[in-house]
Design brief:
The complex is a heterodimer of chains A (415) and B (341). With 415 residues, chain A is mainly alpha-helical. Chain A is built from 13 helices and six strands. In chain A, a hairpin with a 3-residue loop joins strand 5 (354-356) and strand 6. Chain B has a single domain, classed as Up-down Bundle (Formate dehydrogenase/DMSO reductase fold), CATH 1.20.1630.10. In chain B, the strands form two sheets. A two-stranded antiparallel sheet of chain B has the order 1-2. Chain B has a two-stranded antiparallel sheet with strand order 3-4. In chain B, helix 1 (4-35) packs across helix 6. Classes of the chains: A mainly alpha (415), B mainly alpha (341).
Amino acid sequence: MLEALSRLQFALTIAFHYLFVPASIGLVFFAAIFETGYFFTRKPEYKSLSNFWSEIFLVVYVVGIATGLAMPIQFGTNWSKYAVFMGDVFGSPLAFEALIAFFLESTFAGIWIFKRNKIGPGLRLATVWLIALGTAISAVWILTANAFMQHPVGYELAADGSKVLLANFGQLVTNPYLFWMFFHNHGGALLVGSFIVLGVSAHCMKDGPRPAFRKSVNAALVVGLVSALSLPALGDSYGKYLATAQPLKAAIILGQLKSDGQGGLAPDATSAASLPVDLSSLPELPNADLVRGAFIAMVVLGVLFVLLMLLFTFRRRLLWESPFFGKAAIWLTPLGYLAVICGWIVAEAGRAPWIVYGLMSVRDALSSVPVASVAFSLFLMVALYALLFAVALKLIVRAVRRGPEDVQEAPHAAA
Amino acid sequence: MLQHEAAAALWYAVLATAWIAYLAQESFIVGSGMLHRFGYGPAKRRSIQLSAGLHYDGIEVWLIVAVGGTFAAFPPVFAAILSSLYVPFFLLIASLIVRAISIEFMYKDDSPGWRELMSFLWALSSLLVPFVLGVYFANLFRGIAVDSSGYRGMILELFGYAGLAGGIFFVAEALVAGAAWIRLTTIEDREGKEPERAAPVAAILALFALLVLFLALNNRTELFTGSALYAKAPILWALPVAAVISAALAALAAWRRTAAPQFVAAAATSVLAMASLFAAAFPRMLMSSTDPLFGLDAFTASSSQRTLGVMTWVAAVFIPIVLAYQAWKYARFRKDKHGEA
């Protein structure tokens, strides 16, 4: 019960937090693009666009930051044996993420949210790019921590076996797993950001084209097409690497190992490949149907995204002239999220039973806390997050309805 | 490279400093959050939200650095404290989440009902954050009921007179600092009733709660009289004494309605009080009230010398950079009387 509740709580809080992370990374990048356009041309329509996408960014950023607070503390509250065993290696990437990335993001996001219309173009430009830089640095450090859980490197076991110790910090930050994850993950975030911009723009042009949204569509299609094309290419190499780093996960993805219907795994009859690992040594096996299903869904969606981005790039008018494709552009956002979540299911559920691959199982990582405490916190977080979701949705819809400031009517406030 | 013991002591000091930087700055943010809905006119309310909203998020990262740094530098301490004080930590996180949402989204909808709800939630969460933190630190420095198999206490035990004194001290000092921050950084209020005039009452309450807290802590764990560091360097006794004097000066400044001295004295009280406690506790990081055997100290619970060495390099480079841009931000917007855009 304790394990089930703690796992459920971590899964729910991380999945909910992660709804807001790719949108923040993506949207601040678009705000930065338009702000750069404004800085060099001083055309007020670029400033208006930067402000418009920033209003939506603001909502997802705030909810992302707020829900992010619940993540690191769970390593202590719910996974304290993990914290003791892994802290020497795993703790510092989290601390560095706060010191190097969170300070940068938060300090300048405060300026961006509360002061962007009271500062000059130079400071505006610096501020929005520093936030974008902060989100990228943040991703590097949290993925350094996750890559260690996926593929531990640069560590040694303490003499008494009670914990791992940092052996080589250089290896920790040059973990090949980190390299693949970062580009795959950041590409996915930029793609989701492009989908949001594309979907909102299509929705706002359902009664006819509007110049501001056509500019947004142009930017979203460039970023979106590059991301959509690079993701399968990157993913292919990522998969080949995976076969060496996590052979069990790779075998499940490729269908070489399938669920035998009784909680175990069996080699696929048609596959000639031999078993990559000794399954009998594992305390628990990954859910092969879930992992393979999520992988296939991600790949199918990825192909769909490439096709649609190509179509929209060459037939832009479809977005505002065809009600069907206008709707399809709006649906890209939830489908993009679905693909991202499927990717994370493959990454996380696919490495079961390990919390750190080959070193510690999830079961061994739990705190010994009263079940009632975990039930309380789970209830608290679910109730709070349900409200947060409603609030975020309401405010995003409101920002979209208001639309960008109409620059024809506004005086040239380009100071 | 630093010797292991010296590195552990250094990181104890760095994390204590991060906590102090967080608590001192958070006090005027939550203070203005608690005060903003009592008697001010609408324009002034908006001004308070703008001045607190500009800074709160960057300040909160000091908390994440303090907690995350404990995870990295003292993993067993992080694990033991958070799993022992499980419910209080979730209450703190929930309060911080509600605070972030209410302060940021209050003016994102024009309906009066929405603004009233967000204003209420901002004030409530601004009360809960310092109260939970005060109760937490009082219990941390007083010792918590841990043994070999984890926490053995009851949640209600945390709210003994020491815990309550800690909670009240943090809340009252935040009101004093917040009242001064409002006077210093926001527009003049032509319609309101200046609720910050209640600051002298809060300041006297803070002074009283601080004295009770100091006595309660020394009474149970001999925090000061049994302190290794205080015995070695008696000059450290100046810290708790200065904290009490500073709290008294804050009350005097509040009485005379001089905002800048009130702000400085309130912030100094938070800094000195926490510094005196962290110094007195050193090297003890978790004191067990059931058996001292189960406590944890900075020397035996620290990460490896290699980890602490890497952390020291990274901190030495980035903490000055962070301090520089955060100081620049305060200076850059210091003269703004945050009005409506």
